[in-house]
Structures are given as structure tokens and as C-alpha cells.
Amino acid sequence: MRLILDIALTHIAGRGRQSLVAIIGVAVGVGFSIAMAALMQGGQDDFVEQLIDTMPHVQITDEQRAARRQPAEAAFDVAEISGLRPRDDRRGIINPAAANAWLDAWVPGRFSQSLRTQGVVRYQGREAGASIIGIEPETERAISPIVGDFTQGGFSTLNEGGNNIVMGDRMAGKLGARLGDTVTAVSSSGLTRNFRITGLFHTGTTARDEGEAYMLLKNAQIVSERPNAVNDIRVKLDDPYAARDAAGRIEAELGYKAVSWQEANEAIMQAFVVRNVIMYAVVAAILLVAGFGIFNIVSTITHEKARDIAIMKSLGFSRSDMQRMFVIEGLAIGAAGSVAGWALGFALTYALASITFELDAGGQEMTELPIAWSAAHYAIASLFALGSAAVAGYLPARKAARLNPVDIIRGAT
């Protein structure tokens, strides 16, 4: 085996210029593959991180995935029920205190309960539709994504005494109201109550900044005429990727619909899978092109070294030895190109990571391209390169192994 390796390396060195070109081709393919994978994976990770940070990992509502089985369905073999609805629909999570106690006993993370209701906020003849959310400030601060987005005040101001409310700055601007002004909240049932603005937030998301207002849970229950009602529990887990299992356990125990962040964004997660398939298909295509350079060199060596092959076979080298020798030549070029490609890929990735942008969005903000540094990118690119090199070396090697040494020596080929 050592002799075969020495001969293979001698063949490569004998065509130094062509071998170098092939190595550079593989290196460029591996390097750009690594940089592209780092950029695309970084963008995906950054997007998923934003999803994880801006929404609950598990959201429990007072809905159910399927309608409850009615007594008539149990009594009769054939029963059709449609449009079933209580006369006064006052839905909510039954016994929320027990649900909170159960969650507190095992959930590895934090959670907060709230009451969400639709209403209108009025100020000096102007009004804006709003999602009025009743919260408990102590627990909300631990799970809410807008805690760091307050431009004035915060959730803690809701406990300062009196009826207080915090809202998006765009809603306040639409109403013409400012911090300290008193607005009127009108529930869907028509009940009105005055609240003082004690906080304004700006998330950059129009739906939130124009459409959300927060008040104490007890005040939301009074405004909506739903005493002690809770219709939403949001959970933040220590491990966000355990959300599916946690949601399944919660739904099985409580009976209410529990949606993980993966389920809520299932279409986006599927799009990421498709994008990754496309990315690695492009990587394979790049390295396949580089493999043609290896194929060309090994084929040329096979043609030029035909008499050497005949002599080696006449000295006792087997057909498998010939195949092994030329496959080693292809792999050697692929391995050298992979090592050089690692250096090029690292340099390109580092250059991409150092690019910064200046964005003016309510103030100057510096942001960088999202880059994922992963050894897996280097390993995958190298595997593709070595795979294409092995195939490029095997095809000429099979031809060389089939040569008849007698014909070669007589000059037949």
C-alpha cells in the first residue's frame, strides 16, 4: 500500500501545474460552499431566534382543537350537531389557579396568565380599535418581548395606583394622546372606564404599536365584565426546542389548545427545509464542476502512464492495485483542495462577518450580517469534495485496470 501511495503522489507531482489548477478549483468550491452555508445558516438561526424571542414558546388559550362530544352523540348512533353555541359565550380557562399551580410544579421556565379582549380606546373625539390585554406586571416582565421596547414608563407603572394603561406609541399618536393623558377604554359589551397613560412602547411592529394596550388583569376583567376570567397563558421555556413536547403534555392534561412556536410557524420551518435542500444542491453542483478538473487530470495521467501501467501489471500488480492507485490520486487532489478550501472559507466567512450596515430607524443602529460558525459546514463541504474526487478518480482508474499489458507493450494502445 505504501508503494502504491508513493507512485500516486509521484504521478500528481509530475503534472504539477495541472494538479495545482485542480486543487485551486476544489478549494474555491469548498471555500465558497462554506461561506454560503455560514451566511444562510446564520440568517436562518437569526430569524428563528427572533421568533423565539418575540413570541411565547407555548401559548395556551381557552379554545379546543375539536368540539367537545355532546350527550346526544353518546346516546344516539347517528347524530349531527352544528352551530352549537352557549346563549352567552363567556369562555375562559376553567379554574386558572389550578392550571397555574400544575404548570408551576413542572414547567422548566416561566409563564404568565392574561385576559385578552377586543375594545376601543377613545380620546378627545378620536378612537382606535385595540386588543386590550389584562396582565400581572410581575410575571409579564419575565416573558413579554416588549419589556425592552418601552420609550416611556413600563409594565411596573400599572401598579402605581389608580387605573393605568400602557399602549403602543402609534396608537397614542393616532389618538393625539401623550404620557399622563386620560383615555377611555370601551369593551365589546359597551362598558366604559377611564385610564391614565403611564407607559408607551415602540416595537417596530405596526400591529402591536397601533393595536395593543395593557392594563392590570383585574381592570381588564372589570371592563370586559368577566370577573376572575383568564383566557390566555403564555409559557417561556429554558429550552425553546422542547416546546413541542411541553405543548403536547399541557394539552393532554388541561384539555385546552396549546400551540408551540414551531407549530405556529410551521410553514416557515418547512420553507427553511426546502431552502437548505436547495443550498446543499448548489454546493454539490459547485463541487461536481471541480470534480471534472480532477477527472481530466487523472484521465490524462492514465493515458500518459499506459506503458508504466503495463510494466507494473507485468510485475505482479493486480487490477485492484491499479484502481486503488488512481482513486488515491483523485482523493489526494480532493483532500489538498479541501484543506485549502477550509482556509479560504474561513477568510470569506470572517470577511462577511465583519461587514456592517448603518440603519436609521428612529436612531442610528449598527447591524452585521448574521453568520453561523459551525464545524459541520467544513465537514459537509469536504465530504462533497472528497466524494466528487473519488468518483472522478474511479472512472479513469477502472479503465486503467482493464488495460491489457501485452497490448500496451506491443503498441496496440
UniProtKB/TrEMBL annotation:
One of its GO terms (cellular component) is plasma membrane protein complex. GO terms for biological process: lipoprotein localization to outer membrane. Keywords: Cell membrane, Membrane, Transmembrane, Transmembrane helix. This is Putative ABC transporter. InterPro entries: ABC3_permease_C, Lipoprotein-release_system, MacB_PCD. The keyword Membrane applies. Residues 19-252 form the MacB-like periplasmic core domain. The lineage of its organism: Bacteria, Pseudomonadati, Pseudomonadota, Alphaproteobacteria, Hyphomicrobiales. Residues 281-405 form the ABC3 transporter permease C-terminal domain. It comes from Nitratireductor pacificus pht-3B. It comes from the Bacteria. Belongs to the ABC-4 integral membrane protein family. LolC/E subfamily. Its main location: membrane. It is a multi-pass membrane protein. The chain crosses the membrane at residues 20-40, 277-298, 326-351, 371-395. It is found in: Cell membrane.
